Amino acid sequence: MVEHNASQKQDNEQYSAKIICTANHGFAPYAQEELRRLFGSLKSTMLIPGEVFVVTLGATIQDAVERITEKSPVFLRHVFPVLMEIPGEDKELAFEQVVAYLLKRDYIEGSRVSVQVRKADGSTWTESPGILRDKLQEELAPLEAEFTVLNPEWVISLFVAKTAWYLGVSRPENNLSDWNGGAIRFQREEGQISRAKFKLLEAEKEFGIPFSSFRNALDIGAAPGGWSSFLLERGLKVTAVDPAKMHESLLDHPNLRIVNKNASDVKFKEAQFDLLVCDMSWSPKLMARMVTDLLYSLASGGTAVVTVKLLTKKPMALVHEIMDIFEDSRMQIQGAKQLFHNRDEITLYMIKY
User: Quick check: is 223 in a domain?
Assistant: First the structure.
């Protein structure tokens, strides 16, 4: 991380770094465990039960952020480094202190800036986070920044908890996501088959998967067709395998072949596909066995994207077990992440070697 001036360098050299961390609801304990394995002991306080917590780490902010982003955690969806913690009992005074601090951050002057505000229940700020964001942007006018949601150069993060306001300024790549809390939003389209499409849209952004560059895809457990429709929109030819019915809007698509069978009962040519996807609500071990049995049909260098349902009280152990199964089947794991749209599952992005 390159430092541009003294004020930014001073921000990042604070020891006992505090980090606001976000996971999918109910999975914060596993995100905490990922940090514990990375840093050893840590102090942690839950801000939103099962979802958002603040940790104190025995490292500088710069070191902490670099270690977290290099590790690419599975369950930790979003972070931001805390540069200032303000008592929250007096909301007007807290707001004034936030503004005063930010106006001194000369390194964000004239930049593209995203202001991201969240709050916990029971905080002294009773209005919406959006109102607080707008008010903050008005007060930051002297910075002559361009306030934006997409592709910011800097992210101003503010989390308003019950007893404190936590403020950070960071590069978006150091937050694990440039979306507020890592909650990437897509607009539902007219005629959209299911919200499952959002999983592939998010995976496309998170992992940088060039879906439009593939030609022939195999969609295992395809019905009703959310993932198949996404791939067809990207210009691929798709073979959809599922004994259940596909959505009627897909039935006459010229690039779609529907195979109404169980995946265990189908046979394909060697290296017939360059992309394999699977999003089945099924036992993760059975899913892994079914997919690996069909990997002969995926060309060398081909890509696989699968979701793993976390139907266990020990999801971290399960994730590693499933990853080992795929790695033993000549699949190289490129990314493993519980995306915002995954809920109680993770997404694996793999390439066959």
Answer: yes
Per-block average pLDDT, block size 10, for the chain (353 residues)?
Answer: 52 75 96 94 94 95 94 94 96 97 96 98 95 98 96 97 97 96 86 86 96 97 96 97 95 96 95 97 93 98 97 90 97 97 95 97
Instruction: Give the predicted TM-score (pTM) of the model.
Output: 0.92
Count of structural domains within the chain: 2
Q: Nearest to residue 29, comparing CAs of 21, 38, 19?
A: 21
Same domain, 66 and 207: no
The residue range of the domain holding 113 is 6-182
Return the residue matching tokens 């009280």.
313
The rounded Cα 31 to chain-centroid distance in angstroms is: 13
Structural domain ending residue among the three candidates 182, 205, 228: 182
Count the Cβ atoms, other than its own, within 10 Å of residue 48: 17
Together in a domain, 231 and 114: no
> 41 lies in a domain?
yes
3-state per-residue secondary structure call for the chain: CCCCCHHHHHHHCCCCEEEEEECCCCCHHHHHHHHHHHHCCCEEEEEECCCEEEEEECCCHHHHHHHHHHHCCCCCCEEEEECEEEECCCHHHHHHHHHHHHHCCHHHCCCEEEEEEEECCCCCCCCCHHHHHHHHHHHCHHHCCEECCCCCCEEEEEEECCCEEEEEEECHHHHCCCCHHHCCCCCCCCCCCCCCHHHHHHHHHHHCCCHHHCCEEEEECCCCCHHHHHHHHCCCEEEEECCCCCCHHHCCCCCEEEECCCHHHCCCCCCCEEEEEECCCCCHHHHHHHHHHCHHHEEEEEEEEEEEECCCCCHHHHHHHHHHHHHCCCEEEEEEECCCCCCCEEEEEEEEC
Type of residue found at 174: N
Say whether both 253 and 147 belong to one domain: no
